[in-house]
Write a structure and sequence with these properties.
The strands form two sheets. Strands 1, 2, 3, 4, 5, 6, 12, 13 and 14 form a nine-stranded mixed β-sheet that branches. About 13% of the residues have low confidence. Helices cover 39% and strands 18% of the residues. The protein is an alpha/beta fold.
């Protein structure tokens, strides 16, 4: 998950158990009666189509620049892959609403679904509904813990944590570093957190990792980072698991404490991020942060459409290398995942025209 922000409300993602209960309740009620449409995104439909039927596209949120970019790419990639995609649906950071959105799309007669799950466990209620109706699903960005999907399209999130660890480990030889974590109800948050933690322990034992569980929420990240810096003013490095929601509050918090020093200046805190949004690239150019892992929003949209069209045509895939510089792997659950490349971006390659963050209009 690339992250979400909170709009002055309590977090709707409580314990994983509570989410699953809410999701199941929503699903059960929808078996009895269909709810109204939630097709509220500004993204235009693709039109046309390859004859396999209409496809529903469900977003997790639209408050992150990453997901805004993905949303913009969807109709373009649907057209290029000859997929008849509905207007995107925004689940607004609510896993229960996402189950409702899936059922609404199914009740509208879609023949395929491309979904970016909010909660790896709760999404199974929606996947089960789709399977009962014989509608294939492609998951983007987050792999479900259970349930049937034709393919998961995502980058290797373990590699995200490892790349951040390797970069910080080389720049910060000893001392305290912070990882601002994502939602641990998401496999993305768990994999990035554990990979970073394990890598530091194994390869850079002189670093001490402090952790901020921020649930992809910008205000949570800001308040907890502020508190942590009060008691640990000697922080030397920060790993942000989602620049789309953590970049602005992290920079603002450092600035407010007069700790925002440019690269090369005395007291500079080394910052590594994930996402690859234009705002991160600008921060790298300004020397405010040092690196980010570019999560491919364009490729997520492209291959989400590619695999849903293939699934609706009954095409099957096997583990192994692809023709687009990625590798399909079989997850422990038996689900196939196309792990797309996600390069590390630093000042040396930040202006590379091939990076999607440099092509956003």
């Amino acid at each position: 998950m690339a992250g979400r922000t909170v709009r002055n409300r309590p977090s709707r993602v409580g314990t994983s158990r509570a989410v699953r209960i809410a999701a199941a309740a929503a699903c059960a009620s929808l078996v009895i009666t269909a709810c109204g449409s939630t097709k509220d995104s500004a993204s235009p439909g693709a039109g046309g189509g390859g004859g396999e039927g209409e496809v529903g596209v469900i977003l997790p949120l639209l408050t992150s620049p990453f997901w805004q970019s993905y949303n913009d790419y969807v109709p373009k990639m649907a057209k290029s892959e000859d997929v008849d995609a509905h207007k995107t649906v925004n689940s607004n950071s609510d896993p229960s609403q996402q189950i409702t959105d899936i059922n609404n799309q199914l009740n509208q007669g879609v023949k395929g679904l491309v979904v970016a799950p909010l909660d790896s466990a709760a999404i199974s209620a929606g996947l089960d509904q789709a399977e009962r109706k014989g509608v294939p699903v492609v998951a983007v960005d987050v792999a479900p813990e259970k349930g049937k999907v034709a393919m998961v399209v995502r980058a290797n999130n373990v590699a995200y944590g490892e790349k951040a660890c390797a970069y910080l480990g080389k720049q910060v030889k000893t001392g305290k570093v912070v990882q601002i974590m994502g939602d641990l109800a998401s496999v993305n948050g768990r994999e990035r957190s554990e990979a970073f933690r394990t890598c530091v322990k194994k390869k850079y034992p002189k670093l001490k990792v402090l952790e901020i569980p921020a649930k992809w929420e910008s205000d949570t990240a800001a308040s907890k980072l502020d508190t942590l810096l009060n008691s640990n003013p000697d922080i030397k490095g920060i790993y942000m698991q989602a620049g789309g929601v953590y970049l602005a509050p992290t920079l603002q918090t450092l600035k407010s404490k007069k700790m925002l020093k440019k690269t090369g200046e005395k007291g500079h805190i080394t910052v590594v991020s994930n996402d690859g949004i234009p705002q991160e690239f600008d921060a790298i150019r300004k020397g405010q942060i040092d690196a980010t892992v570019s999560q491919p929003a364009d490729a997520y949209a492209k291959y989400g459409m590619y695999y849903i069209k293939a699934a609706m045509n009954g095409k099957k895939f096997k583990p192994g290398p692809t023709d687009h510089d990625s590798t399909i792997v079989k997850l422990p659950s038996g689900i196939l995942e196309d792990q797309l490349p996600a390069p590390l971006v630093t000042k040396e390659n930040v202006d590379d025209s091939k990076l999607w963050g440099n092509t956003v209009e």
